[in-house]
Amino acid sequence: MLSAFGLRAKRLRFTYPPMQRAAFVLALVMLAGCRTSNVDQWSGGGGTPFKQAERTCLDLMDSIREEDGRSDFFLGCMNAYGWTPRPGAMLDF
C-alpha cells in the first residue's frame, strides 16, 4: 500500500514538463519583484489607503497597452485616489 502511494506521489510531482515548471517559478519571481513605488514616494491619500490605491491602479494598468501610456495611466489613477508623487520620486513602471 505504501509503495503504491509512493509511486502515485512521484507521478503527481512530475506531472508538468520541466519548462512549464520553470516558467511558473519565473513568473512567481517576477511577480514578487513587481513594485512600482512605496508610500514614502507619494503624498496625499485623503480617503484611500496607499496599498489599496496602488493595487487597484496596478490591476487596471494591466489592461493598458504600453503604447497607450501605462505610466501616465497609473499616475492619473493614483491621482484620482488622492495620491501624487513627491518631487524626485523614483517610480518604476
Walk me through the structure:
The chain is mainly alpha-helical and about 90 residues long. It has two domains: about 1-35, no CATH class; about 35-85, no CATH class. The protein is built from four helices and two strands, in the order ααβααβ. α3 (about 50-60) packs antiparallel against α4 (about 70-80). Residues about 30-35 have low confidence and may be disordered.
- Helix/strand class: mainly alpha
Mean pLDDT: 74
Give the oligomer, counting copies of the same chain as homo and different chains as hetero: single chain
Number of helices: 4
Rg (C-alpha, Å): 21 Å
Question: Can you count the beta strands?
Answer: 2
Along the chain, the helix and strand elements come as HHEHHE
Low-confidence stretches: 28-35
End-to-end span in angstroms? 53 Å
Tally of separate domains: 2
Helix content: 40-55%
Strand order of the largest sheet: 1-2
What would the principal axes of the Cα set say about the shape? Answer: elongated
Major beta-sheet overview = 2 strands, antiparallel
- Strand % is 5-15%
Give a quick rundown of the structure.
The chain has 93 residues and is mainly α. The protein has helices at residues 2-13, 18-32, 50-61, 70-80, and strands spanning 42-44, 83-85.
Question: Any descriptors?
Answer:
54% helix, 93 residues, 2 domains, mainly alpha, two-stranded antiparallel sheet, 4 helices
